[in-house]
Amino acid sequence: MSAKECILIIGANGQIGSELTMALRKAYGSSQVVASDIKTPGKELKNSGPFEMLDVGDRNALHDVVRQYGITQIYHLAAVLSATAEQNPHFAWDINMRGLLNVLEIAVERKLNRVFWPSSIAVFGPGTPTENTPQSTIMDPGTVYGISKLAGERWCEYYHLKHQLDVRSLRYPGLISYRSLPGGGTTDYAVDIYYEALKNQQYTCFLAADTTLPMMYMPDAIQGTLALMQAAAGKISIRSSYNIASMSFSPEELADEIKKHLPEFTIAYKPDYRQEIASTWPRSIDDSQARKDWGWHPEFSIDRMTADMLNHIDKKIRQRSFY
Ligand code: SER
């Protein structure tokens, strides 16, 4: 990627966006990375580079920002996640699809160099093999979020084939991080649990004890996203979205890891509607294509991640109660 690239992040306040923006600013220079969101940013994002209030559903507004800054790459992260989408399916479909189509269309019109858009393990469904789920397999998502991600993958490949757009994508598993909270996902328990363990020594999980799902620590997700986007175009053989994997665990296994640090911690289980969603998702993912094509390799295991999460969240809680 040339030094002249100017990057727009859409959904910069979110769980992925807040960390990806900072990583990109570090890699390419703050003034080259324009953060945008529909909500006012926190101090870190605001003080570290340009920020625009932007609704990706507003095609003209998006067009204006792309033109004004001379944007050459877009990372489009704004979406309604799986659990929230089930509460309001048509709203979620509109947000998830209209935003992506606007980005793809403007990317072609303005001849952008590259686009990143995240897909998810939610593209898989009850007919998909659950263990070591292949890159190409049965995809029959049963959630509106999964349907929108699968449709989005097809649109990305379509724009690549019809318009030669250099669009790249990853099927993220559940993402775990301490900087920004996730919102409205089925895998969010794996973040909430750390806060509750430190604050109350107790957590009631909305998934059953043995619900194994693919998960990933945010530093690996950020590193993987940058590696994918920096790879030479010739290395990218998948234009729908790449499977990527790191670790898989159940709530019970995660609770056992936390207990190694906080022996008093207890967990209870009260599965709700999110259990039905989780039950249709893979337990583990085959990411060999991503490893082979552009060198994907995660670094964090459940034990290293847990030590790091507890350490950082503990500091956050102490700082808040102190001030
Ligand atoms: N973490 C997401 C969710 O639970 C999956 O992509 O909705």
Task: Please render the helix and strand layout as text.
Layout: E1 7-10, H1 15-28, E2 33-37, H2 43-47, E3 51-53, H3 59-69, E4 73-76, H4 82-87, H5 89-109, E5 114-120, H6 144-163, E6 167-172, E7 174-176, H7 189-200, E8 202-205, E9 213-217, H8 218-230, E10 242-243, E11 247-249, H9 251-261, E12 266-269, H10 273-278, H11 288-294, H12 302-322
Parallel strand pairs: 1-2, 1-4, 2-3, 4-5, 5-6, 6-10, 7-9, 8-12
Antiparallel strand pairs: 9-11
Helix pairs in contact: 1-8, 3-5, 5-6, 7-9, 7-12, 9-12
Serine binds at residues 81-82, 120, 122, 145, 172, 174, 185-187.
Write a compact overview of the structure shown.
With 323 residues, the chain is of the alpha/beta class. 46% of the residues lie in helices and 15% in strands.
